[in-house]
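Example record

Each entry pairs one chain with its bound ligand, pyridoxal-5'-phosphate.
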Amino acid sequence: MSPTKTAPALRLAGRMARLGTETAFEVLVRARALEAQGKDVVHLEIGEPDFDTPANIVEAAVTALRGGYTHYGPSAGLPDLRKAIAEYTGSTRQISVSPDEVVVVPGGKPIIFYTMLALIEAGDEVIYPNPGFPIYESMINYVGGKAVPIPLREELDFRFDMKELASLITDKTRLLILNSPQNPTGGVLSKADIEQIAAIIGDRNIMILSDEIYDRLIFEGEPFSIASLPGFKDRTIILNGFSKTWAMTGWRMGYGVMRPDLAAHIARLMTNSNSCTASFSQMAGIEAIKGDQSAVGVMCREFMKRRDLFYERINRVKGFSCLKPKGAFYMFPNIKKTGWQAKPLADALLEQAGVAALAGTSFGEYGEGYLRFSVATSVENINKAIDRIEAWVGKNL
Ligand SMILES: Cc1ncc(COP(=O)(O)O)c(C=O)c1O
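Structure tokens for the complex follow.
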């Protein structure tokens, strides 16, 4: 047989057509390509702290590596870390959590992936915030569920319209996704909001995926978890992680807290996919939770200062108006008065002004009319970005 000159047709599984993406990574690649051509780009697209991981956490990992934590560990996580997470989650949410309710995974994202795989059958409805973290919608569609968006509206401070939520619940609703503080709007659900959501769900057998990954990056009010309300712990999967709070995005460390029978199935998904989370990363995770917390406060105060700067300046730019986010490190200005749609405006700012931001539509259809800027960058970069946006607006609007 003669060797084939062209590769055979790629026969992809049909489900791949339903898988979405996270645009931040694509914009980062485009921005880097522009930089390779010699252009200067201010990066406000990617959602990761610009701080280094605190030194005590790095030291714990180095010690663990030297101490032989280079092997497989249990799929659900190292017992000491599960215990530390159980205590931490229990004390911060005023609930009792045992280590067998904790599954450690490589980052927050796998909890979204595994929750969908474990709970959602074809046709099951999942209500999720829109605009919202794009992986929710992507994964709902991937597993064959029906994605039911609940729009987050600026008029309501990007919180839920409770009447609308009630109207979206049907007999097929299997899962509700909450995310507070929220990506991309920086909105925070108050305790009263969460109590109302709980009242709307009532005693229906609907599970809640509560994405609390920004729980320590909150500028006004206190974080509140629906798992803290009577009768809700057994219906809640708390998603949390180390990426944002302790600036550990590259370590791939996250976890889910859920009823033990579900935790056993999520651990089985881990066995089938990752085997386990890196053992030395987990040892560093114990230090992150139990060690000195001063770096968390320093980062949070710094993000707040940058939020205030961005807020003051962007609201003086023609065509832009922005609410003051209550948490996380994102700004989500309304750009409707520019007369531009979100995607072309984000493209123009990247290519013509050298400012990388994301179109609101990267977070779902209800993100049209908005851009997302990450302020997890220096004051100098924020000032440079807004100077450039102002200059671009001056020429083009
Ligand atoms: C709301 C939300 N959930 C989950 C994640 C995933 O975090 P990780 O990088 O730990 O997988 C992110 C990351 O941006 C996020 O914004």
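The pocket of pyridoxal-5'-phosphate is lined by residues 47, 107-109, 133, 179, 183, 211, 213, 241, 243, 249, 254 (CB under 6 Å).
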